């Protein structure tokens, strides 16, 4: 139990579908992150939310749309994805306190685009 | 551009052997973290190092941060099958929030 819960764990969707990934943290943290993990590539930071405000968008295509309604919840809305978007999507949370705080990860959503 | 290079990418050893994993960069980091990730799970933090030259021990695992804060190593003594997993280093350039750059990982398999 990491304190960060991601749903669904697995998702298969067509390129024209719309779906959303959900992340919830129970650790009282004030920053949340989306990462993409593909085979043979480093974890790629996609988005960072600090105090519910987006502070980082790492050149992510607009077909990925994040939403952070409060400090405990983070969503990633997906629309018109491409086959190369198939990957493990990881959510993490941390405390913002002068930086260098550990990140706590969820177990990820394994996304497959048909 | 990959900021952090990890080596080796794959390592398969027998139980009881020692091993070292390296994490190198040309950039300076304010801190560096090591994570272990098992199949079907997210990465789990092992250690954070923040001072150049710092050495931290976690049972059979020894972590070192380079003097110039550009590189780090993880040494495992007498590896066990339970050490099997993907080891990731992550460096933070610094700032008010945690923006970490991850290495591509070292996949370790310890055979009984």
Provide a brief overview of the structure.
The complex is a heterodimer of chains A (114) and B (112). Chain A is an all-beta fold and 114 residues long.
Give a description of the structure.
The complex is a heterodimer of chains A (114) and B (112). Chain A is mostly beta strands and 114 residues long. In chain A, 0% of the residues lie in helices and 56% in strands. Chain A contains no helices and eleven strands. In chain A, the strands form two sheets. In chain A, strands 2, 4, 5, 6, 9, 10 and 11 form a seven-stranded mixed beta sheet that branches. A four-stranded antiparallel beta sheet of chain A has the order 1-3-8-7, with no helix packed on it. Helices cover 0% and strands 52% of the residues of chain B. Chain B has no helices and eleven strands. The model of chain B has no long low-confidence stretch (mean pLDDT 92).
Topology:
The complex is a heterodimer of chains A (114) and B (112).
Chain A: E1 4-7, E2 10-13, E3 18-25, E4 31-37, E5 44-50, E6 53-57, E7 64-70, E8 73-79, E9 87-94, E10 104-105, E11 109-113
Chain B: E1 5-7, E2 10-14, E3 19-24, E4 31-37, E5 44-49, E6 55-58, E7 61-65, E8 71-76, E9 85-92, E10 101-102, E11 106-111
Parallel strand pairs in B: 2-11
Antiparallel strand pairs in B: 1-3, 3-8, 4-5, 4-9, 6-7, 7-8, 9-10, 9-11
């Amino acid at each position: 139990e990491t304190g960060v819960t991601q749903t669904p764990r697995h998702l298969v969707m067509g390129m024209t579908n719309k779906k959303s990934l959900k992340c919830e943290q129970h650790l009282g943290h004030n920053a949340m992150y989306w990462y993409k993990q593909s085979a043979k590539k480093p974890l790629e930071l996609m988005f960072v939310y600090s105090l519910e405000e987006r502070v980082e968008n790492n050149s992510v295509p607009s077909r990925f749309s994040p939403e952070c309604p409060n400090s405990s919840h983070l969503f990633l809305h997906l629309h018109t994805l491409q086959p190369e978007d198939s990957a493990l999507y990881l959510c993490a949370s941390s405390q913002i306190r002068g930086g260098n705080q550990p990140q706590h990860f969820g177990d990820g959503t394994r996304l497959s685009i048909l | 551009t990959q900021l952090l290079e990890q080596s080796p990418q794959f390592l398969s050893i027998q139980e009881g052997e020692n091993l070292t994993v390296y994490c190198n960069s040309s950039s300076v980091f304010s801190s560096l973290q090591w994570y272990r990730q098992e199949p079907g799970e997210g990465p789990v933090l092992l250690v954070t190092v923040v001072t150049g030259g710092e050495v931290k021990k976690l049972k059979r695992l020894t972590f070192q941060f380079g003097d110039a804060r550009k590189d780090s190593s993880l040494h495992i003594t007498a590896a066990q099958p339970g050490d099997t997993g993907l080891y990731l280093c992550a460096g933070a350039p610094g700032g008010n929030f945690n923006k970490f750059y991850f290495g591509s990982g070292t996949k370790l398999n310890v055979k009984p």
